[in-house]
Amino acid sequence: MPLVTTTEMFKKAYDGGYAIGAFNVNNMEIVQGITEACQEEKAPVILQVSKGARAYANHTYLVKLVEAAVIECKDIPIALHLDHGPDFETCKACVDGGFTSVMIDASGKPFAENIEITRKVVEYAHDHGVVVEAELGTLAGVEDEVKVSAKDSSYAHPEEVEEFVSKTGCDSLAIAIGTSHGAYKFTPAQCTRNEKGILVPPPLRFDVLDEIVKRLPGFPIVLHGSSSVPQNYVKMINDNGGKMPDAVGIPEEQLRKAARSAVCKINIDSDLRLAMTGTIRAYFNEHPDHFDPRQYLKPARANIKELVRHKLIDVLGCAGKA
Ligand code: G3H
Ligand code: 13P
Ligand code: ZN
To answer: Which domains can be identified in the chain, with CATH numbers?
Structure first.
């Protein structure tokens, strides 16, 4: 089937109590690892491209890689989405250039300005059959372009959501409820220890989510910053010459709980990066004389695939839903 928008995916996910995985793509091996897992598990998927990915790999290469996945993975719906579109021009370039969904992230701007920019993107995108994700609240964490400290982050305000959605016409809404971008979340100092002495990060604000759902019944909610920072890959990186700091990601049970509610899209990127980097580092330590990129990218792609399979089955609940 051709590339799809997220409209149908989100409706089924909302009604079915699961979420669609939105995974960032930057090169062929990442596209293949993700989509092979989704094809085998019969899971709908959103492949998303950031501003940084477009700068790194080039818009056309990424679109063509995703189109190749669409041809190879015949049984699953695939949407191509712009992640964290910074402005109208970038969103327009992606609408014009084959994407089926764009995010305008004006969450760092004052509320009225966020509405104004988002509405402009929605008008253009809808005229071209493309759907729009917008954002309220500010996530902590580190992305290519933005660093937001925990103190500068803020939860979404439930009392703003109805006005925002009705005035912008956006199709889905990313909200800040305590998730955080990157692989450095959360530091041990931000966590508490449970009775078994295990570090537990600050819990997601399900009360904020519930309040938003009450005000926007049936409306698809998106969670960014939802990597769980798998400790086996952090260890693999550090055992093989890396220096990743101790970090505790978003507990997978909390994401599973969110996926059962109005959360229809969950963004996971850093976990795949950790899997790829750990695998490549370990490979080079075991094979210091190898130099063919196919040799080390092959196990990296295979581990991305297995990690995505795990997310589809155990976290998102979207396996078998294509
Ligand atoms: O939230 C952002 C994604 O993880 C993409 O990151 O801007 O480094 O491509 P990036
Ligand atoms: P992570 O850094 O937690 O993987 O979040 C990715 C994300 O939100 C992409 O938009
Ligand atoms: Zn994000």
So the answer is: 7-181+208-227+253-269+297-316 (3.20.20.70)
